[in-house]
Amino acid sequence: MIFVAGITAIDAHGKVPFELEAELRAAFSRVDDVLALMGSALHHVVDVSCFSIGEPARVHPVLRLVIDDVFGDPKPVTTCMFVRALLEPNARCELRVIARASVDDREAVS
Asked: What whole-number distance in Å separates Cα of residue 109 and Cα of residue 91?
């Protein structure tokens, strides 16, 4: 299993995308980059935790949309927790994911 935590959409200049949807997509892109370094990929993610700042009625539908687009089916188990603040003051969301280590797709699963 691969555990990735503390992922935000902050770029090298300390900037965060203005729109929440763009911020979430950028954060998932960073997760994908980290997983690739570990020999895995987003389609191996089994659990997503999103720590968010904001109104649940506004954030949750956007998170659902991005999760649907990023993962397709089957989707990982997803939990969204609303917090008062994040360590990165410009971020509105922070991701933690658990992924399976990549398995050669040619191997038979018993």
From this structure: 40
Domains of the chain and any CATH numbers: 2-99 (3.30.1330.40)
Side chain identity at residue 47, one-letter code: D
Q: Contact 75/45 with Cβ under 8 angstroms?
A: no
**pTM exceeding the 0.70 threshold for the entire prediction:** yes
Residue 74 to residue 79: CA distance in whole angstroms: 15
CB 93 within 8 A of CB 50: yes
Q: What is the pLDDT of residues 22-75, one digit of tens each?
A: 999 999 999 999 999 999 999 999 999 999 999 999 999 999 999 999 998 999
